[in-house]
Amino acid sequence: MKKIIKITFVFVISLLFINTYASTKTFTRTNEKPLVPSWITVDSSNKEAIMSTPAVDASEKIYDYAELLTEKEENDLLKKINEYVKNTGYDLVFLTAKDLGKKDATNYMYNFYDYNNFKRNGTLFFVNPTPNGISTYMITSGEDAAQLYTQDRITKTLKHLYPAFKGGDTYKGAEVYVKICAGFYNVNRGNNARIDASGNVVKTIPWIELVVIAVASTFIIMFILIKKNKNILVTPERSTYLNTASMVINRDSDVLIDKDIPKEFKK
Q: Is 43 exposed, middle or buried (0-12, 13-18, 19+ CB in 10 A)?
C-alpha cells in the first residue's frame, strides 16, 4: 500500500514538472528537397540561407522556439489567427526565438517567412528575448500587405504591444497583435487610424488635411470669382453715349400770370 502511495506521489510530482509548452515541429531540408515555396528558385545566392532556415508546417502559424506560450495559449491564439486569415486572405505568423545564430533579426524573419510555404501577402511578428532584455519586430510580405500595413502602422503596433511583451505577458501581446492587424484591415489603407488603449483600431479625423483642403478650396473659389468679375463690363455713364459739346438743350417753362387775364375767364 505504501509502495502504491509512493508511486502515485512521484507520478503527481512529475506531472508538475512536465513541460507545458508546445513544441514546434521542424523538418529537414536537403539538396533534393529544400522545402521552399514553388515560386522560390534555389541557387548559389540563397542556398545557404535556405538550408539554415527552419522548415516548418505553414498551417501552424505559431512557432514558439523561445517557449513563451503554453500549449493552451497556443491553441487559443491559433483559433484567432485562423479567423483573421479566413477573413482577410492574408497570412499571420507569430515567431519567438532566443538564438538567431549568426543572423540578424531582420534576415532571420524574412528568411523564415520567404522560405516556408506562407501566403504571398502577410505579416510576421517576432519576439526575441535576450539576456539584455526583449526585442519585438514586425515585417510584411507582399505588395498588398505592405500597402495596408505601412511603416507608420507598424510603428504604432510595436509601440502599443511592447509593454505587454516586456512585462512577460506574451499571450496578451500576441492576442492584441492579431486584433490590431484585423483592425487595420477593416479601416483599409491610409494613416488616419490610431490604436486605442484596448487595442482597437479607430479612425481619426485628419484635421490638418481638412484645413489644407478648406484653405485651398477657398482660394480657388475666390480666384474664379475675381476672374469672372473681370469679364463683366461696368455700366458706363451717360456721357459715354452723349456728345455734350454739340448738344443744345432748349428749356421751356410755363408761368401762370393772374393779372392781365380777361375778366370773362375769371370765375
A: exposed
- One-letter amino acid identity for 190? G
Among candidates 155, 136, 150, 147, which has minimal Cα distance to 94? 136
Please choose, from the candidates 36, 174, 34, the residue with its C-alpha nearest in 3D space to the C-alpha of residue 115: 36
Cα distances from 258 to residues 255, 261, 262, 263, 266, in angstroms, run 10, 6, 10, 11, 10
CA 144, 189, 106, 87 torsion-angle sign: negative
Distance of CA 44 to the CA centre of its chain: 36
Domain spans of the chain, in order of start: 21-207
Class of domain 21-207: alpha beta
For the entire predicted model, the pTM comes to 0.70
Nearest residue to 181 via CA among 203, 154, 218, 143: 154
Q: In order along the chain (267 residues), what is the average pLDDT of each group of 10 residues?
A: 47 42 82 96 96 96 97 98 97 96 91 97 97 95 96 96 96 98 87 84 65 63 69 52 54 49 45
Are the CB atoms for 165 and 139 separated by under 8 Å?
A: no
The torsion angles phi and psi of 71, rounded to 5 degrees, stand at -60, -40
Bridge partner list, 96: 64, 127
Cell of 262: 380777361
